[in-house]
Amino acid sequence: MSVAKKDYKKVTTKSLIEMKANGEKISMLTAYDFTMAKIVDTAGVDVILVGDSASNVMAGHETTLPITLDQMIYHASSVIRAVDRALVVVDLPFGSYQSDPKEALRSSIRIMKESGGHAVKLEGGSEIKESIKRILAAGIPVMGHLGLTPQSIYKFGTYTVRAKEEAEAEKLVEDAQLLERLGCFAIVLEKIPAKLAQRVAQSISIPVIGIGAGGGVDGQVLVIHDMLGMNNEFSPRFLRRYLDLYEQMTGAIGKYVEDVKSADFPNEKEQY
C-alpha cells in the first residue's frame, strides 16, 4: 500500500521515527565529498551516511579498518558543507570507540564539533553498550549497526551472510532491542536473512535500515559508488546498479584523450 510522503524541509532523527510510524520508507546513501553530497541531497535522499567505506572507495584499502578519525572528520566536513535537507550520519572508525567509553565519547564529540555532523554510527550490540550510553548521555544521536559489521571482518573471516544460525539470530534480535532501549534513533542491519530483518523491524519502534537485509525493513542504504556503477568489481546479490558510470566515464575520458591527441580539442569556439 502506497503511503503519502510528508515533505520534510529538514530531515531529523525525529523525522525518521515519524516515517517509520507512517509507513514511509527511508532512503539512505553514502557520500564522502562536497560535489557528490550536493547531488545526493538535491535528489531527495533522506539520510547521507559518511561511511568508513571511504576507506575502500576513496582510499583504495581492502577493508574499512585503516581509515582514521581525522580522515572521517575531513570527509564529513566536506559533506556537511553541501547538505541542506538530509540528515548526515558519520561512522566512528575502527579503534575510536570499542575499548574505552571515554574514548568513544571523545571521538564522537570531535566528529560533532569539527565536522558539524548530525549523528554518529557505531558497529556492535551489547559489547559496546557502555560507549553508546556515554555518547547518548552527552546529547549526541547514535545509529546502531548489526549483522555483518565490516570493522570486525578479521574476526568473522568472511563477508558472507550473518545470523543464519539460531543462536546468532537471537543475539541479533536481543541486541536490536537493547539498542532501542539505550536510546539509539535507528539501526542499520547488514547482510542478514530477510525474514530475520523483518522480524527485527517489527519488534522495535525505531527505524531499521537494511543493506542486503530484504524489503521488510523501514529503509535501504547503498554505497553511492556501487549503485552508480562506478565500481565494476563489486556485484553482491543485494546491489541494484542504477547507472553504469564506469563504462560511461571511461568512454568519455577516452574520447577526451582522443580529441586532445588529434588536436580536435579545443576548437575555435572553445578558446579566447
UniProtKB/TrEMBL annotation:
Its cofactor is Mg(2+). The keyword Metal-binding applies. The keyword Metal-binding applies. GO terms for biological process: methylation; pantothenate biosynthetic process. Mg(2+) binds at D52, D91, E123. It is an enzyme of class 2 (transferase). The active site is at E190 (proton acceptor). It comes from the Bacteria. InterPro entries: Pantoate_hydroxy_MeTrfase (IPR003700), Pyrv/PenolPyrv_kinase-like_dom (IPR015813), Pyrv_kinase-like_dom_sf (IPR040442). Pfam families: Pantoate_transf. Catalyzes the reversible reaction in which hydroxymethyl group from 5,10-methylenetetrahydrofolate is transferred onto alpha-ketoisovalerate to form ketopantoate. Binds 1 Mg(2+) ion per subunit. Homodecamer; pentamer of dimers. Belongs to the PanB family. Keywords: Cytoplasm, Magnesium, Metal-binding, Methyltransferase, Pantothenate biosynthesis, Transferase. GO terms for molecular function: 3-methyl-2-oxobutanoate hydroxymethyltransferase activity; magnesium ion binding; methyltransferase activity. CDD domains: KPHMT-like. It is found in: Cytoplasm. This is 3-methyl-2-oxobutanoate hydroxymethyltransferase. It catalyses: (6R)-5,10-methylene-5,6,7,8-tetrahydrofolate + 3-methyl-2-oxobutanoate + H2O = 2-dehydropantoate + (6S)-5,6,7,8-tetrahydrofolate. Pathway: Cofactor biosynthesis; (R)-pantothenate biosynthesis; (R)-pantoate from 3-methyl-2-oxobutanoate: step 1/2. 3-methyl-2-oxobutanoate binds at D52, S53, D91, K121. One of its GO terms (cellular component) is cytoplasm. The gene is panB. Its EC number is 2.1.2.11.
